[in-house]
Design brief:
Radius of gyration: 20 Å
Shape: elongated
Largest sheet: 8 strands, mixed
Distance between the termini: 35 Å
Helix content: 10-25%
Number of helices: 2
Oligomer: single chain
Order of helices and strands: EEEEEEEHEEEHE
Number of strands: 11
Strand content: 35-45%
Number of domains: 2
Length: 195
């Protein structure tokens, strides 16, 4: 940040009085410009029919990680709740109608200044289609998920926890999905050549 959004003058990096870390502070009007993590909110859209469970994934049409698979998710907007953001992102990226369930994962991705949250969701129908940010959308059974083609560590972590909970429920160890909070410290894999 170089200039103040309040008055247009230069900002300097300094520790404001009563604070404990450097902030961008306007040299003219004194406005302190706080920079906070971005919220990435999404869903785990599930279709269960005749004993078969599938997850809806989107193949990214944009960078970063164009051509890789992801759960429908994106940046939360001002004036919306996390649940509203999950529904909106699912509609925008996958054209899917969902019934939103409870929060499933909260993943801190500190090295890129983000927090990712994924909600359980039930697909209401099979009327879905790729949005502008998706090349394609497809339902996958667990055995068919393109694990080596997932876009981000948060997607892999969320799916692994989801299927681990499914096993626990089938074995009678758990009666419902858990709620998980993890810190993701591993970077993404190196990008491959674009399609």
């Amino acid at each position: 940040m170089n200039f103040c959004s309040e008055c247009g003058h230069a900002v300097a990096l300094s520790i404001p009085e009563g604070d404990n870390r450097p902030r961008h502070v306007c040299t003219q009007c004194g406005t302190i410009h706080y920079q906070n993590p971005k919220m990435v909110i999404g869903s785990i859209p599930v279709w269960e029919h005749e004993g078969t469970l599938q997850i809806l994934l989107c193949r990214r049409a944009i960078e970063p990680r164009r051509g890789y698979w992801t759960l429908p998710a994106g940046f939360m907007e001002n004036a919306e709740t996390t649940g509203e953001a999950a529904v909106r992102e699912t509609e925008e990226e996958a054209g899917a109608n969902i019934e939103l369930g409870p929060l499933f994962t909260l993943l801190n991705v500190a090295h890129v200044h983000q927090v990712h949250m994924f909600y359980l969701a039930r697909l209401l129908d099979l009327d879905f289609a790729p949005g502008e940010e998706s090349l394609e959308v497809q339902l996958f059974a667990e055995r068919d998920i393109p694990w080596d083609e997932l876009a981000f560590p948060t997607i892999r972590t969320t799916l692994e926890l989801f299927f681990a909970d499914r096993v626990k429920m089938r074995e009678g160890v758990a009666s419902a999905y858990g709620v998980y909070s993890h810190d993701i410290r591993r970077p993404m894999l190196a990008p491959r050549e674009p399609d």
